[in-house]
Amino acid sequence: MDIPSRSSHLKIFPHFRSSAQLVSTHVSFVFRKKPRDKNLKLIARALSEWHEYEDAVKRKDLARALRFLRSLEADKNKDNSAEKINGFLSSGPTQSGVSDLGLFDGSQRDWEVLDTCLNADDMRLVGSAYGFLKNRGFLPSFGKFSNIVLEGPRDMSPTVFKSSTGLEVSKFAPKKWGLSGSSRFALVAFLGGVSFLLSQGIDIRTNLAATLGLALMDSIFLGGTCLAQISSLWPPYKRRILIHEAGHLLVAYLMGCPIRGVILDPIIAMQMGIQGQAGTQFWDEKMSNELAEGRLSGTTFDRYCMVLFAGIAAEALVYGEAEGGENDENLFRSICVLMKPPLSVAQMSNQARWSVMQSYNLLKWQRHAHRAAVKALESGCSLSVVIRRIEEAMSSGQAGIGC
């Protein structure tokens, strides 16, 4: 809006007619006093409200934390509109007084709203949190590669797969414990130790039977949680889990699927109903809407499969082969069977190879971001920090530092 003309200005302030210089002096004096008092009140109120936000983050209350950030954004927009309307008469000392606290205007604490997502029951609210931060410019890489599912050939034979990834298809197959990989040597060593003790006259058959019985009960009733908890104490095994879950997390993030949380503790995973030793919970809004309508488009299914097989792809990228991911494969098969019409065995194999290949290449292109995610998870960082490290690595092309 244009600044009022001199005549209209004099009508508003008739007692300033004596001189233009006097008008300027009095205007400066009038607007020097009140904004200071107003600033103090706003700063006090901002501090009080910010404590409420911190409490919401601490209590993992996503709805309350997101409501605060939205109200803050609305107040900013209102202040900006007022400045434009009033022109030079409200040139911004009020807002700058609050900004000097370092609480607003690109505050790093805005990221902390992601740490409240894990306890959220409404996944749409989780999606709203990611959408809010993306609109604020915090998540430029979120959904950056969502159209990748439309690229590349659909017929993924083992030969084409090897030419694209450089690895045999068998390298991406989850391994059974005791039959492949390092677990095979552990099983041989265990059986050798038992034989040696028996040859020395030490009968451990009763203890061995009890141990195997407990392991069987753990597998049936707890999904192998106790064994996984013990195994997670072994550093190489723990790191492989981190690499696997970082693969899920990064691909889901780059494909635009909001991540609710990453659970690395087997007991917590069991309490949350997650199959396996760990899990990354993500949400695909399009898939959710389509399933509610009783349909599932090819593009949506492709994106979901890419995220689902990203853990296997990450292990193969780092180690040259994958060991985990059996639960991911089981979930994939269960979805394929529920489709109308259900996929045949040949179609499932082709879809799995195509999805793994896409995830493998995406992680290979963004290897620095995957390393940054692994480092952050290994350091015990919260989800918000992990996402920030990914964004920093994406922008700089290098792996991020710790928490």
TrEMBL record:
One of its GO terms (molecular function) is ATP binding. Signal peptide: none annotated. One of its GO terms (biological process) is proteolysis. Transmembrane segments: none annotated. SUPFAM superfamilies: FtsH protease domain-like. InterPro entries: Peptidase_M41-like. GO terms for cellular component: chloroplast; thylakoid membrane. PANTHER family: ATP-DEPENDENT ZINC METALLOPROTEASE-RELATED. This is Peptidase M41 domain-containing protein. It comes from Manihot esculenta.
